[in-house]
């Protein structure tokens, strides 16, 4: 099968969050299974060019219609971890992808609307005929709309579209002008059953367009798929998802065990496996040495991730002093896109700067992230909502017991040590329901208590987590079943 991924991110060259990991991991899995996969990305100026091999000009003189004019583009080709990637480089007055960042500009809607049109124009002019076009998030929501409204009339009748929603917190709300910019007719498309937002009069919803026009829609965990249809987490898209429920489902993301695996990890002090789990504690010693924590008989509790309201930052903020007052050490690695949140954590860092059991690292350091996963005993993921979450999946593989809220992909991967309706060998962490400090404190107290009072049971939880298989093997098979289901006979 010939599959083209159209995405705003692909790890490791263009990664903001989990979306980039998914595009990379799923594409590799499909390639391993013998399918031809190509990825189309914007050519950002801030990409990791050191991770692109053999970057060359692939297609010159690609002219893309935009706002009644034609914008000249070049398309470059390069290999990223063995994946075929095409990078679209528009020579436009707007300087669409030379901004020093991937997202965060007021004209993001126009930038990615142009990218959608350019990706299809490139496929048409380069004579590519994929059986499946797989699009990701609001940034590519116009691809299926353009395919069926414009490009099928130009000869692209073969491709079918799978569309993955990674986070409904970002839907691409725009004015009607966004459709005119890419040559679409707003009058025909701004209706309740197409792109008109259900709750914002006169507003175009790009993610809604992707849902309506795609042949199949997925999101990144089964529980999140239920939540977005039946709770406020649908964030205004509940009605349209229920209208299209027959082509909608949740597939849990995988994680790349060639990267996140203590048996092969080159970033940690000592590799280990279930058979040699005792060696994990050499990483605990190395983490303490690196972060100037004292060597005492205490569990290390950690947080790794974005300091964002979605991730439960106010609960993390309260957890730091709580853990220090209840016989634990605390390590944090993360930063926030919001200056006031970063400021609060800088203040907390200064407060505990000389504390021998605490280290807060405001920023991101890939090497340190690996060592924290390997050296911690417990890791917090107290999210308000979590479409899938990779933190807890990675932690499980490293034998680091997750403490998570019962939502989205967290509910699909972490099963409470005391209360899960599962056999004991499948229980692997601690789960709380209420999104407040009382909820998190109850789970943390149980986890810390087990570490101190029942070390053998804690070891069993660790090993249960390490046994879990959240590789791309299973989701790869599920996506192929979807592709087979929707592709042209």
What does this structure look like?
The protein is an alpha/beta fold and 489 residues long. The protein folds into two domains: 2-254 and 473-486, Glycogen Phosphorylase B (Rossmann fold, 3-Layer(aba) Sandwich); 277-467, Glycogen Phosphorylase B (Rossmann fold, 3-Layer(aba) Sandwich). 36% of the residues lie in helices and 20% in strands. It is built from 17 helices and 17 strands. The strands form three sheets. The chain has a nine-stranded mixed β-sheet, with helices on both faces. Helix 10 (313-325) links the parallel strand 12 and strand 13 (329-334). The radius of gyration is 23 Å and the shape is globular. The two termini are 12 Å apart.
Task: Summarize this entry quickly.
By secondary structure, the protein is of the alpha/beta class.
The SS-based structural class is alpha/beta
CATH class designation of the largest domain: Alpha Beta
The CATH topology annotation of the largest domain reads as Rossmann fold
Approximately how much helix is present in the residues? 25-40%
Walk me through the topology.
Elements: E1 2-6, H1 18-32, E2 36-42, E3 53-66, E4 69-80, E5 83-90, H2 108-125, E6 132-136, H3 142-149, E7 160-165, E8 173-174, H4 177-181, H5 186-189, E9 204-205, H6 206-213, E10 216-219, H7 222-230, H8 238-243, E11 248-250, H9 280-291, E12 300-304, H10 313-325, E13 329-334, H11 339-351, E14 358-362, H12 366-375, E15 378-381, H13 391-397, E16 401-405, H14 408-413, E17 430-432, H15 437-453, H16 455-467, H17 473-486
Parallel strand pairs: 1-2, 1-6, 2-5, 6-7, 7-10, 10-11, 12-13, 12-15, 13-14, 15-16, 16-17
Antiparallel strand pairs: 3-4, 4-5, 8-9
Helix pairs in contact: 2-3, 3-6, 9-12, 10-15
């Amino acid at each position: 099968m010939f599959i083209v991924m159209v995405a705003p991110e692909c790890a490791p060259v263009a990664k903001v969050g989990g979306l980039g990991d998914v595009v990379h991991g799923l594409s590799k899995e499909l390639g391993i299974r013998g399918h031809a996969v190509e990825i189309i990305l914007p050519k950002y100026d801030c990409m990791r060019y050191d991770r692109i091999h053999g970057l060359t000009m692939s297609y010159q003189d690609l002219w893309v219609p935009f706002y009644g004019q034609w914008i000249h583009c070049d398309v470059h080709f390069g290999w990223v971890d063995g994946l075929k990637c095409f990078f679209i480089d528009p020579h436009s007055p707007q300087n669409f992808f030379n901004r020093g960042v991937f997202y965060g500009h007021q004209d993001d809607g126009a930038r990615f609307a142009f990218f959608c049109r350019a990706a299809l124009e490139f496929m048409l002019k380069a004579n590519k005929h994929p059986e499946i076009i797989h699009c990701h998030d609001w940034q590519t929501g116009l691809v299926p709309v353009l395919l069926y409204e414009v490009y099928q009339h130009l000869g692209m009748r073969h491709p079918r579209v799978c569309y993955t929603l990674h986070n409904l917190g970002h839907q691409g709300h725009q004015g009607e002008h966004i459709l005119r910019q890419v040559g679409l007719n707003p009058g025909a498309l701004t209706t309740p059953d197409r792109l008109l937002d259900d709750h914002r009069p006169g507003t175009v919803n790009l993610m809604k367009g992707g849902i309506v026009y795609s042949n199949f829609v997925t999101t990144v965990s089964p529980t999140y798929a239920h939540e977005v249809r039946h709770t406020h987490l649908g964030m205004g898209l509940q009605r349209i998802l229920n209208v299209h429920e027959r082509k909608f489902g949740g597939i849990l993301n995988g994680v790349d065990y060639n990267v996140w695996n203590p048996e092969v990890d080159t970033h940690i002090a000592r590799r280990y496996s279930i058979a040699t789990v005792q060696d994990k504690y050499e990483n605990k010693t190395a983490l303490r040495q690196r972060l100037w924590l004292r060597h005492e008989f205490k569990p290390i509790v950690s947080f790794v991730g974005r300091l964002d309201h979605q991730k439960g930052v106010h609960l993390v903020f309260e957890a730091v002093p709580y853990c220090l007052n209840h016989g634990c050490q605390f390590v944090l690695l993360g930063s926030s896109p919001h200056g006031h949140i970063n400021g609060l954590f800088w203040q907390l860092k200064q407060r505990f700067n000389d504390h021998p059991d605490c280290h807060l690292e405001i920023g991101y350091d890939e090497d340190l992230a690996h060592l924290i996963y390997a050296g911690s005993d417990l890791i917090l993921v107290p999210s308000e909502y979590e479409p899938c979450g990779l933190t807890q999946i990675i932690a499980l593989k490293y034998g680091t017991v997750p403490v998570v809220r019962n939502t989205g992909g967290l509910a699909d991967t972490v099963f409470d040590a005391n209360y899960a309706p599962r056999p004991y060998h499948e229980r692997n962490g601690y789960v709380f329901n209420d999104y407040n400090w009382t909820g998190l404190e109850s789970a943390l107290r149980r986890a810390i208590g087990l570490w101190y009072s029942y070390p053998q049971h804690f070891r069993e939880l660790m090993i249960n987590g390490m046994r879990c298989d959240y590789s791309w093997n299973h989701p790869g098979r599920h996506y192929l079943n979807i592709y087979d289901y929707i592709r042209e006979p």
